[in-house]
Write a structure and sequence with these properties.
The complex is a heterodimer. By secondary structure, chain A is mainly alpha-helical. Chain A contains 4 helices and no strands. Chain A has a single domain, classed as 3 helical TM bundles of succinate and fumarate reductases (Up-down Bundle), CATH 1.20.1300.10. Chain B contains 5 helices and no strands. The chains are: A mainly alpha, B mainly alpha.
């Protein structure tokens, strides 16, 4: 199903955008308040927020479908019904967790 | 990583999968994924539990060993897992040997370079002053 290719796509997104922004963020923290301000200027911009929400969703989706792949590596969950339910649950879970995180985060002062 | 030989007898004879070597890479990818399950959960929970996400708060968090050490592990394991994952993607879609080698080399340099940059920034946070 589509969840397998989504696992790849989110993995690529996390590798480049995720680790890239993590590295930039660590440099901003190390460099001081001015550098950090130029980062938050980008991350609080609507487009920046879209990217961050995308990375958050990719994180949860890759994590949940990763667990699914580990279970399947053990030889379990190959029955069609269970397999499909599990795949759908990873999407429902990742969307719900992303919504919960950002609902919480947008209430925290920057 | 040596976690036992998981290759099949035929695979041992040929020494070839799509990755051009045995089960080692496959296993490493799974071991790092389980480590990232723990480290990723730690990172997310830490970010959500910080009172604010301003520079000062993050600096103090990552200056302490309780923040710096797991973050260093996350960076190392994260870049390693990204490199292993990108190798699977490159090997699956880029079959021409020259392009395959070049792309895998670029991924290796990006991962090692990016990981080094992130660790350098983290070292400055951990060993620098918090003034």
């Amino acid at each position: 199903m589509a969840v397998s290719i989504i696992h790849r796509a989110t993995g690529v997104a996390l590798s480049f955008a995720g680790l890239g922004i993590l590295t930039w963020w660590l440099f901003a923290v190390a460099s001081g308040p001015e550098a950090y301000a130029s980062l938050t200027k980008v991350t609080t911009h609507p487009l920046g927020l879209v990217v961050l929400v995308g990375i958050t969703w990719s994180f949860f989706q890759h994590l949940l479908s990763g667990i699914r792949h580990l279970v399947m590596d053990s030889g379990a969950a190959f029955e069609l019904g269970i397999n499909k339910t599990f795949a759908i649950l990873t999407i429902v879970g990742s969307v719900a967790l992303t919504a919960a995180v950002w609902f919480y985060l947008l209430g925290v002062p920057k | 990583m040596s976690l036992g030989d998981s290759s099949t007898p035929l695979g041992r004879v040929r020494g070839l999968g799509s990755a051009q070597h045995g089960g080692e890479h496959w296993l490493t990818e799974r071991v790092t994924s389980i480590a990232l399950l723990l480290l990723g959960t730690w990172l997310l929970a830490s970010l959500l539990l910080l009172p604010q996400l301003d520079q000062r708060t993050v600096l103090e968090w990552l200056h302490a060993p309780s923040g710096a050490v797991p973050m260093a592990l996350f960076v190392i394991v994260g870049f390693k897992h990204a490199l292993d994952g990108m190798k699977v993607v490159v090997d699956d879609y880029v079959h021409e040997p020259g392009n395959n080698f070049a792309l895998n080399l670029i991924m290796l340099f990006l991962a090692v370079g990016g990981g080094a940059l992130a660790l350098f920034a983290l070292a400055r946070i951990a060993f620098g002053g918090v003034a």
